[in-house]
Structure prediction request, 142 residues.
Amino acid sequence: MRGFGDRDSLLPMSIAHNSRLVAIVDDDESVRSALQDLVESAGLSALSFGSAETFLESDARQTAVCVIADIRLPGMSGLELQETLKAEECRIPIIFITAHGDEHRIHVMRNGALGFLTKPFDDSALLETIHTAQQGLMGKTK
Prediction:
């Protein structure tokens, strides 16, 4: 797993987002690896995390253009991650992925998720959603 350690307390609150960095949160190492390869093949950078807790301990939530997160994770779920970020007023776009159908789609989209993809999904759909996150970030920085 490639990722950052706990350095949040050392970072100023004004860190600019990196429009090329995508955070990946999934407990399945093969999914993380495949997603990281896909993201990097599109010319972007990726950091992967095996749990929501590890992601939250990193500085990626302040620097990534978006996070790709599985709905079902051991420990804190993707839904709980979304609620935590929302409570912290962290507006990083979340793209949810799941192998368990659409039962959470309406909930996560109403709570501000950028996308919801069911595994297996089309690579181009994911890359298009990441591009949407990049466009949103660029629109905010102009």
